[in-house]
Amino acid sequence: MENSRKIDKVVNLAKRRGFIFPSSEIYGGLNSIYDYGPLGVELKKNVKKAWWDFMMARKDVVGLDSAILAHPRTWEASGHLDGFTDPLIDCKKCKNRFRADHLLEKKGLKPDFAKTKPMDMKDIKCPECGGELTDVRQFNLMFKTFMGPVEDSASQLYLRPETAQGIYTNFLNTKESMRMKMPFGIAQIGKAFRNEITTENFIFRMREFEQMEMQYFVHPDGKDDIFDTWKKLRKEWYLSLGLSKENLRFREHEPDELVHYASKAFDIEYNFGFSESEAGFKELEGIHDRGDWDLSRHQKFSGQKLIVKDDDNKDYTPHVVETSGGVDRATLAFLIDAYDEIEGGRTTTTKSVKDAEVVLRLDKRLAPIKIAVLPLSKKVELSKKSNEVYDSLVSKYRIRYDETGSIGKRYRRQDEIGTPYCVTIDFDTLENNQVTVRDRDTMEQDHVVIEELESYFAEKFN
Ligand code: GAP
Question: For ligand 1, is residue 286 a contact (CB within 6 Å)?
Answer without folding.
Answer: yes
